[in-house]
TrEMBL record, chain A:
Keyword Acetylation attributed: no
Tree of life domain: Bacteria
Primary location: membrane
Record's subcellular location: Cell membrane
PANTHER family: ABC TRANSPORTER PERMEASE PROTEIN (PTHR30193), INNER MEMBRANE ABC TRANSPORTER PERMEASE PROTEIN YCJO (PTHR30193:SF37)
Protein name: Carbohydrate ABC transporter membrane protein 1 (CUT1 family)
TrEMBL record, chain B:
Keyword Isomerase: no
Keywords in alphabetical order: Cell membrane, Membrane, Transmembrane, Transmembrane helix, Transport
UniProt name for this protein: Carbohydrate ABC transporter membrane protein 2 (CUT1 family)
Organism annotation: Pseudosporangium ferrugineum
Keyword Transport among UniProt keywords: yes
PANTHER family registered for this protein in UniProt: ABC TRANSPORTER PERMEASE PROTEIN MG189-RELATED, ABC TRANSPORTER PERMEASE PROTEIN MG189-RELATED-RELATED
Length: 315, 273
């Protein structure tokens, strides 16, 4: 099947310069083999992302409920976003979540990685405990969080009670829910950051550290002036990766708050999901998605540009 | 003389952290064996009085969870097998074979990494609808048949292999496919294992794609199953936790058994992805 697909464009090419049959035959064979190997996966990946992404742009310029014929409305969907308080609130929640989540996961990731890099007893046990939540699905994590943070009998309030602190509403409070969602996301994702940093720490040449110690540097100064700069490329990557994770957070919100209470955890992705699949406003949903895409791209480019300029070679 | 702790001070950081990460999962398992009365007691209990299996029994009797489990196993199996076959073929093609349009095709694959999921939700649903796979398991596995990450990972791995072995095989008269299958693939076991773990985690834990495309509860995967009866049984905590245990335990056990492989996958995603 893949070979048929690869062969079609070639078969229609007019032969302008006839070459010796053997050489042309060999070139054709080489191309067929190459496309036979690379074609199927490329077709799937491009067909499930580049193609729909382009299509989404055309959808974003229509008014469409998915059933009746779409009507072309030009840029009106985009103009409407500016006056949509829900879209503004969703963008704000996404921003707050990202600003809390990304630095926290990087700092915790470095801290945990440095701790797990020590040669002490029980280190295997600690490592297993800290990484295992990463394997649990966001859906299961969300349901479990609903239990742990339950205001009546959850472990979180029970802990506060034992410490003599007042009970909280957590996911049921509009002012706390987003912060709690962020904590839950950290619980599930920090293991990943820690693993990445742990590998990076173990990649730092031992001679560098030893030389500094011989020169009389304290452990803290070694960390500050040798370890941290060495971790910089990984940090650029982690920052981008975690930004994407935070901005695309959906499963966890779906199984904890569904955007509530009082829309306080409605992020852009969740808002688009509601627009498209609960209120059937496909065109407007696609426009919000495109705008977010543009903003994310600009942010990513800014981070990459900044890191290039300050001399780290992650890309 | 300086006073010293009898153990490394790092334990003071690591012990509480480890407990914060693992205790919720322990509580999930313990709660799944409690009765409703035990769960609603004040102050809350951590350990069940004995192993009550009512939660599991109700779950098995009143939902299609066995079906959902089988669906998830099927979806993940198809995803892992397709990923291994398609991405290793493509990775090899991009790493070693010369053909017209190779650079452009690889660029297109790399560019897809930039596209966020929210942009794809709406058109993907419409594509599924036109292809007639809404409400079928295909909607759950089609997004995981191949990935840019998988192609990239395999390409990087093949680029790192010495080319001499393949040249020797070609001189001996092996076809490209034959060389790939009997010379290259056996060397690629570590990369294939990493890719298998990545695909298993992604496809098993995926909620979004099946959620937008599947509404028939016979076709649910575990993740949408969990989400849907969370909506209908908000207070049946022993059942909810039992469902969570059934959905997460296979991967947690796999993680405990093959921890090294899982960590290698996470590291690769981080350092080279």
């Amino acid at each position: 099947m893949a070979l048929t697909f690869a062969a079609t464009p070639r078969a229609h090419r007019p032969d302008v310069t006839p070459r010796p049959a053997g050489r042309r035959g060999r070139a054709l064979r080489r191309n067929l083999t190459g496309w036979g190997f690379a074609g199927p996966a490329t077709l799937i990946v491009v067909g499930l992302s580049l193609f729909p992404a382009v299509w989404a742009f055309f959808i974003s310029r229509t008014k469409w409920n998915g059933i009746a014929p779409a009507t072309d409305v030009g840029w009106r969907n985009y103009e409407r976003i500016a006056q949509d308080p829900d879209a503004a609130a969703a963008a704000q929640h996404t921003l707050v979540l990202t600003v809390l989540f990304v630095p926290a996961s990087i700092l915790l990731g470095i801290l945990i990685a440095v701790a797990l890099n020590q040669r002490i007893r029980l280190i295997g046990f600690y490592r297993t405990c800290i990484f295992v939540p990463y394997v649990a699905s966001a859906a299961a994590t969300g349901i479990l969080a609903g239990f742990v943070f339950n205001p009546q009998f959850g472990a979180a309030n029970e802990t506060l009670r034992r410490l003599g602190l007042p009970a909280q509403q957590f996911l049921e409070s509009p002012s706390q829910a987003l912060l709690v969602v962020c904590l839950i996301a950290l619980w599930g994702e920090v293991g990943f950051c820690a693993v990445v940093y742990l590998a990076a720490l173990q990649d730092i040449p031992k001679e560098l550290v030893e030389a500094a110690v011989v020169d009389g540097a304290s452990r803290w100064r070694v960390f500050l002036h040798i370890t941290l700069p060495e971790l910089r490329p990984v940090t650029v990557f982690t920052a981008i990766w975690q930004t994407i994770t935070a901005m695309q957070l959906f499963d966890l919100i779906y199984t904890t708050t569904r955007g509530g209470p009082m829309n306080s955890t409605q992020t852009v992705v969740y808002y688009i999901y509601e627009l498209a699949f609960e209120t059937q406003r496909l065109g407007y949903g696609a426009a919000v998605a495109y705008l977010l895409f543009a903003v994310t791209m600009l942010l990513t480019l800014a981070v990459v540009g900044y890191s290039r300029r300050s001399g780290s070679e992650a890309f | 003389m300086r006073w010293r702790l009898p153990f490394s001070p790092w334990h003071l950081l690591l012990m509480p952290l480890a407990l914060i990460f693992v205790l919720p999962l322990v509580q999930m398992v313990l709660t799944s064996f409690m009765t409703a009365q035990e769960i609603n007691q004040f102050p809350p209990k951590f350990i069940p009085s004995s192993l009550h299996v009512e939660g599991y029994r109700a779950l098995l009797a009143e939902t299609h969870i066995v079906r959902w489990f089988a669906n998830t196993v099927l979806v993940s199996t198809i995803a892992v097998v397709a990923h291994l076959v398609l991405c290793s073929l493509a990775g090899y093609g991009f790493a070693r074979l010369r053909f017209a349009g190779r650079g452009l095709a690889f660029l297109a694959v790399v560019a897809t990494v930039m596209i966020p999921i929210q942009l794809l939700m709406i058109p993907t649903y419409l594509m599924f609808a036109r292809a007639g796979i809404v409400d079928t398991l295909a909607a759950a596995f089609v997004p995981w048949l191949a990935s840019a990450f998988g192609i990239f990972l395999m390409r990087q791995f093949f680029l790192g292999l010495p080319v001499e072995l393949e040249e020797a095989a070609t001189l001996d008269g092996c076809s490209t496919l034959r060389t790939f299958v009997s010379v290259v693939l056996p060397l690629a076991r570590p990369a294939l294992a990493t890719l298998a773990v990545f695909t298993l985690l992604s496809s098993w834990n995926d909620l979004l794609w099946p959620l937008i495309a599947i509404s028939d509860d016979n076709r649910f995967t575990l993740q949408i199953g969990l989400a849907s009866f969370q909506g209908t049984r908000r207070t049946e905590w022993s059942q909810l936790m039992a469902g969570n245990v059934i959905a997460t335990m296979p991967l947690i056990i796999a993680f405990l058994v093959a921890q090294r492989r899982f960590i290698a996958t996470m590291t690769f995603t981080g350092l080279k992805g």
